[in-house]
From TrEMBL:
Keyword Coiled coil carried by entry: no
UniProt-recorded name of the protein: Glycerophosphodiester phosphodiesterase family protein
Keyword Signal: yes
Domain GP-PDE residues, every copy: 13-264
Transmembrane segments: none
Classification via Pfam families: GDPD
Classification via InterPro entries: GP_PDE_dom (IPR030395), PLC-like_Pdiesterase_TIM-brl (IPR017946)
Keywords from the UniProt entry: Signal
Domain of life of the native organism: Bacteria
Amino acid sequence: DYQKPVALPEEPFLVIAHRGASAYAPAHTFPSYELAIDMGAHYIELDLHRTKDGKLVVLHNDSIELNGSELEIDEITSDTLGAFKPADEFNQPTNEFASQRFSSLRVPSLEQVLREFGDQTNYYIEIKSPDRYPGIEQQLIDQLAGHDLLNREDSIPKVIIQSFSSDSLKKVHELSPETPLIQLYSFKKKANLSSSKLKQVTHYASGIGVNATAVTEQLVDAVHQAGLAIHPFTVNEREQFSSLFSMGIDGVFTDKPDLILQLLNQD
Ligand code: G3P
Ligand code: CA
């Protein structure tokens, strides 16, 4: 027994700023999110982890390198994480967007992001490595509810939650059946998802996210047949975008929301 997931609106085509406008500013930092919002992206994408002291934090990897050691996020406190500089990787001499003004940035907590942007933007949140973080689903839903970001009547959902883990998404669907969910997949070659597999996904999710190189027209059609949406990741090139767009995808993850919006507005 399950509550049918909500359908995502067919319009607009969703521009999802992957880790913010992360081509132009360090991923998962305030400048990256601000830029994405200023450019007009529909969503900022957040990757979620939890520190040893129980804080939800926004960064991509399961671990950081600090003073020559590899530290797992679930084994360090938020204080320790506070010493990590997310801009170091971005600020390479070969990067034309590198800037010293980024060097003081720190990994934001989910709380800081929600407090800063409130309902100015929409959030496309990935639960990373849920097996490492028991109870993260309830914690996330509580935190979003505390900011009044769930069960709203906006033209597009204020929050979408994504994960590679179907178990985690099923938990979220039970806790918050009105929140649209995206089942992520990554395929080495072309995507292979049977219609019965896609039907199972419809029990808890509103769409799928797939690596862009795996997407075929047949997949897009099968996903739509099942009543799901499809958002490929991560598309930063004009030609790749045009090809996927002509297959009928519903949105895209991009490090360059300005490029995608420009291409969309040309039509
Ligand atoms: O969440 C979609 C896409 O971002 C998954 O890949 O590794 O960039 O989080 P990753
Ligand atoms: Ca992600």
